[in-house]
Design brief:
With 357 residues, this protein is of the alpha/beta class. It has 9 helices and 16 strands. 27% of the residues lie in helices and 21% in strands. Bound molecules: manganese (II) ion. The site of manganese (II) ion (MN) has 6 residues, from loops.
Length: 357
């Protein structure tokens, strides 16, 4: 049986991190739609019987009805494909959500319960659950048992795996891979983690977000396509997002002025389709103002510059000098040693001071 597995599309997300470039957020929302169209095209052309959407299909707080209509229309173009949706923490099944109020077609099955439910047909058993609020701390999987079946058992769920946590330290619907294996799932169609884990040995996969949402989602994004029997599962990854977010590190040691650095960035060989964040490293010989550089460079696809450089002065040595520079450095160094400023602040202060002298 053939299937497609996607997750974390986040339709209508505002893309606030892309606001530095005019209309880029809107372009990305169009690209989300294009990626989704490709999913539907693939299903049509390959007679795929099942589409698993493992949560965060849309952003509850931002999604518009017109977008839901757009999604639903595309669903109706693949009437022979059964579509299973397990709402996630960004699109929970709650009262007055579109999952609650909108009438999707007959081929769309939405899991509506925080406990595990089973859908069974002649080919497969599909187990799924919904986020019914924006955060779920405990997984209903803990108490699940699977009866023996000759058909593949598939789990579709939005969850954290093996103790993964978000930046704030929260685990969403946490489950253990070993638990899924011991229960006897033949495929885990997961969502929530935006980076794919295609080398997983245990048939438990995240496809990653369908299109990258920002610079914390580097590399290729798309969908998993698979073919499963009780004995084996073969999967492939198909890229859907034509853009990539990329980081480029470069050392500033050899540049003697801001102008040198800007010239170098202007001549960087970049792929027009990708979006770039430049990370400056090494020892700098001049003050770096990333905002100013970004403005002067004005390359459409260079969105961010992060300054991780250190100043190129031997401060200990300079602070021993019996002149204005020495006294100044010693003062600032003392403040830093007393904890009155951060390392970055003290470096900036010295740099600006020394340049002024
Ligand atoms: Mn997500």
């Amino acid at each position: 049986m053939k299937f497609v597995h996607i997750a974390d599309m986040h339709f209508d997300i505002p893309f606030t991190s892309l606001n530095t470039v005019e209309d880029l957020g809107e372009k990305r929302r169009i690209e989300q739609r294009n990626a989704f169209k490709k999913v539907i095209e693939y299903i049509k052309q390959n007679n795929v019987g099942y589409l698993f959407i493992a949560g965060d299909l849309y952003e509850h707080d931002y999604v518009r009805e017109s977008t839901i209509e757009y999604i639903s229309k595309l669903f109706s173009q693949i009437p022979n494909c059964k579509i299973f949706i397990t709402p996630g923490n960004h699109d929970p099944y709650i009262k007055n959500s579109y999952y609650d109020t909108y009438e999707f077609g007959d081929n769309v099955y939405i899991f509506r319960n925080a406990r595990i439910e089973k859908y069974e047909d002649e080919n497969v058993n599909i187990y799924g659950m919904a986020f019914t609020e924006f955060f779920m701390e405990e997984s209903p999987l803990e108490n699940l048992t699977l009866p023996f079946s000759n058909k593949p058992n598939i789990l579709v769920a939005h969850c954290d795996l093996d103790g993964a946590k978000d930046k704030e330290g929260f685990s969403y619907n946490p489950i253990l891979e070993s638990k899924l294996n011991s229960l006897g799932f033949d495929y885990g169609a997961l969502g929530h983690i935006h980076k794919n884990n295609l080398n997983n040995k245990n048939k438990i996969y995240y496809p990653g977000s369908t299109v990258a949402l920002g610079f914390d989602e580097l590399g290729e994004h798309g969908m998993i396509v698979g073919d499963i029997t009780k004995e084996r599962v073969n999967i492939d990854f198909i890229r859907l997002d034509e853009r990539k977010f990329e980081e480029i590190q470069f050392k500033v040691d050899d540049f003697s002025s801001k102008e040198d650095l800007i010239d170098r960035i202007l001549n960087l060989n970049l792929d027009d389709m990708n979006l770039y964040k430049l990370i400056l490293i090494g020892n700098r010989n001049f003050e770096i103002n990333t905002r100013e550089i970004l403005r002067v460079v004005a390359r459409e696809n260079v969105l961010k510059i992060k300054d991780c450089t250190k100043i190129n002065y031997d401060l200990e040595e300079l602070s021993k000098q019996k002149n204005l520079k020495g006294i100044f450095i010693k003062e600032v160094l003392d403040m830093y040693n007393k904890g009155l400023c951060t390392e970055e602040e003290y470096q900036k202060a010295i740099e600006i001071g020394l340049e002024a002298m």
